[in-house]
Amino acid sequence: MSDSSFYVTTPIYYVNDAPHIGHGYTTVMGDVLTRWHRQRGEDVWYLTGTDEHGQKVLRKAQQNGVAPQDWVDRLVETEWKPLLELLDVANDDFIRTTEARHEAGAQAFWQDLHERGAVYKGGFSGWYSVSGEEFVGDDDVRDGEGDDEGQKVSALDGSRVEYVTEENYFFPLSKYQDQLLALYEERPDFIQPESARNEIVAFVKRGLKDLSISRSTFDWGIQVPWDHEHVMYVWIEALLNYVTAAGYGVDQEKFDRLWPASIHLVGKDIARFHAVIWPAMLMAAGQPVPHRVFAHGWLLVGGQKMSKSKANGIRPDELVSVFGSDAYRYYFSRALTFGSDGSISYEDMHARYHAELANGFGNLASRVAAMVGKYFDGALPAAGESTDAEQRIIDVVAKAVADADAAIEAVAPQDAVAAVWRIVEELNGYITEQAPWAVAKADPDDPRLATILVTATEGLRALAVLLNPVMPKAALALWGSLGAEPTLGALADQRIDGVASWGQLPVGATITKVPSLFPRIETPEAS
Question: pTM of the predicted model, to two decimals?
Answer without folding.
Answer: 0.91
